[in-house]
Amino acid sequence: FLFHQVHCDAFSDQGHSRGHSCGHGKVAKLGANPSTSTVRVRHNQKQHSIFGKNNSNNIQHEHRVSLSFPTCGESGGSLSAIPLGLSGGAGAGAGANAGAVIFNNAPFNLSTGIFAAANGLGLLISLCTGSHLHLDLIGTGAFALAALPNLLSMNTNTNTRILLSSGAVIIWASKLASFLFYRALKVHTDVRLEDTLNSTSGTIVFWMISLLWGIICSLPHTLGTTSSSPGSSSRIALVVGTVVYALGLATETRADYEKWMFKKDESNVGKFCNRGLWSVSQHPNFFGNLLLWSGILIMNFDSLISVPTQPINIKNERGGGYGMTIASAKAILGSWRAWASFLSPMFMWALFYGQSSGSITNAVELAMKKYGGPKSSYGDYVKTVPLIIPRFVGW
User: Fold this and answer.
1) pLDDT of 310-353, one tens digit each?
2) What CA–CA distance (Å, rounded) separates 70 from 61?
3) Please, is 14 exposed, middle or buried when counting C-beta atoms within 10 Å of its C-beta (0-12, 13-18, 19+)?
4) What is this structure's pTM?
5) Residue 197 burial class via C-beta count within 10 angstroms: exposed 0-12, middle 13-18, buried 19 and up
6) Which of 89, 163, 292, 303 is 20 to 30 A distant from 47 in Cα terms?
7) Cα separations (Å) of 306 from 87, 160, 217, 330, 336?
8) Three-class DSSP category at 64
9) pLDDT tens string 183-200
């Protein structure tokens, strides 16, 4: 909308001339050869003349005219604009929003609620039974539950990007949760968490971290579901993101399988796994997890960038422009979802590094005692093999 005190010359479909004047002071003279763009102008009417009939009622009204935008003649100022694709009739509003990215936070709120409910249930089971076999089943399974509504609501208008992202999350979460639950049933305990889960306060802290992990880790997907954008028209981001996701899923799956089979072999009792992917990374499963979530981030990132598709460039009397500055600021502020999605890999890196380095758990200390200390072959392994990011030749 342009709010301006103007004198407009336009032509009706019948070729009759219409004119009106608003006694507000400055007058902008608009050209007699209108462009194809349609602009809706709203202002307070002081004196309105159509076909010689005067109306002096002081009311607010609006009209739509096709206009070109030369300089404002005797007003001394300059007003130029990029027409916004507005159209007359009832479809004006829809025309203005054509191609615009619409954000709806309802899917994100639903996913967050599912994470909260699932982890709350896990905490309740832990406090009431003292069992911890369900930790990974619920903590990791919550990712699949949170992504499931997007698939259940699938229809012909559903965004392909959202369906692909949802499917990726569900496949990963279902695979990992089922494997970890199966492992828990076989092993019965996790020595790394015994000290933490032996107290009520430790159990509460664990499930709070699990909830935080779920919400932050899934941000590339859950924020992606709030955007109506299908992503880049070339679909390059979807293709690249899917490839990175597949590599990460394959890496994590292979790493878990290799270690599980190594430990099942009775000849390896008392030994540590340094075969396959575990020979090029101390924690290749962590690397695979980081990689697959980076793929989901790539899938959704460009859809989270809010760039104004209908910028207005307003020039002041000295010819200075403000429009691009305003548009740029809106783009940066409106794209907070894109920047927030980076919290996912940052949080996971901090969590995985803390676990693998022993700064937030005693896993390294326990492993060092179990496998012979710093001067053993395990000590050499820790010193020479990368902690998380593998040597890519072996990977």
Assistant:
1) 444 444 445 555 454 555 555 556 688 888 999 999 999 998 99
2) 24
3) exposed
4) 0.68
5) buried
6) 89
7) 23, 19, 22, 8, 9
8) strand
9) 888 887 666 666 677 788
